[in-house]
Amino acid sequence: MKTRIRRVSIVGFAALALVSCAGMQSGPGSMSFFVTSAGPGNGASLGGLAGADRHCQSLAQAVGAGGRTWRAYLSTQGTEGAQTVNARDRIGKGPWQNVKGELIARDVDQLHGPGNNITKQTALDEKGQIVAGAGDKPNRHDILTGSRADGTAFAPRDPDMTCGNWTRSGAEGAVVVGHHDRQGPTADPWATSWNSSHQSRGGCTQAALRGTGGDGLLYCFAAN
To answer: What angle do CA 73, 77, 81 make, to 5 degrees?
Structure first.
């Protein structure tokens, strides 16, 4: 009887191990979330949502993850005839994990709630590298989003929060950013928000984005 119980236990542990491994796949092929290692380089002028998506897709393709449909986590405001688009509505249903197989969020609600797992250690770039944050030189923790904390767009009547819906790179306009490292000048929720911390200062130029601790980086999510 003892021998039989032991055999069943071994089989049970083996099954659990297989399930555990299946849920912790890593590598570019299983990656469904990353922070861009670089921005397009023209401030917040990304070529609109389509241009931002192409940037995500190109970086993913370069590391062998181009088989998925990648979307930039960006909102647009319904101004001057443009359509209002919510970042949360364009990134799929989840779950999402980084290149190391670490779970970021299982669905859209968790992503925008207190249970998400976006930190400096998990919000890796497409190459699996940590993105510089507060305390590093240079600090690159300002990630472009143009979004409210719940992932929705700002209202058309609000001031420009998306640098002209991702078409401006001059002194005019501003953009809302989040902090991928969850670090800010205070411990207030706005200061440590991953997707809606503060506006850029001095416009939409590359220099303006760098001036507040950014570099024109994006969050990219696999929508399928």
So the answer is: 130
Claim: this prediction has a pTM higher than 0.90:
no
Contact call for residues 49 and 84 (beta carbons, < 8 A): no
Distance CA 184, CA 192 (A): 5
Tell the residue number behind the tokens 């990134």, with chain if given: 91
CA 223 to each of CA 68, 160, 198, 207, 209: distance values in angstroms, whole numbers, following the listed order? 8, 27, 26, 31, 27
* Phi then psi dihedrals of residue 57, to 5 deg: -65, -40
Exposed, middle or buried by CB within 10 Å (0-12, 13-18, 19+), for 109? Answer: middle
Backbone angles phi and psi of 197, in degrees to 5: -100, -50
Contact (Cβ atoms closer than 8 angstroms) between residue 202 and residue 208: yes
E strand or H helix that includes residue 10? helix 2-22
Q: Which of 170, 177, 176, 158 is nearest to 79 (CA)?
A: 158
Handedness of CA 139, 192, 86, 72 (dihedral sign): positive
Residues 6+ apart with CB under 8 A from 164: 172, 173, 204
* Token code pair at residue 89: 């509505």
Amino acid at 138: P
Give 50-79 pLDDT, tens digit per residue: 999 999 999 999 999 999 999 999 999 999
Q: Residue 68 region, left (φ>0) first, then alpha (ψ -120 to 50), else beta? A: beta
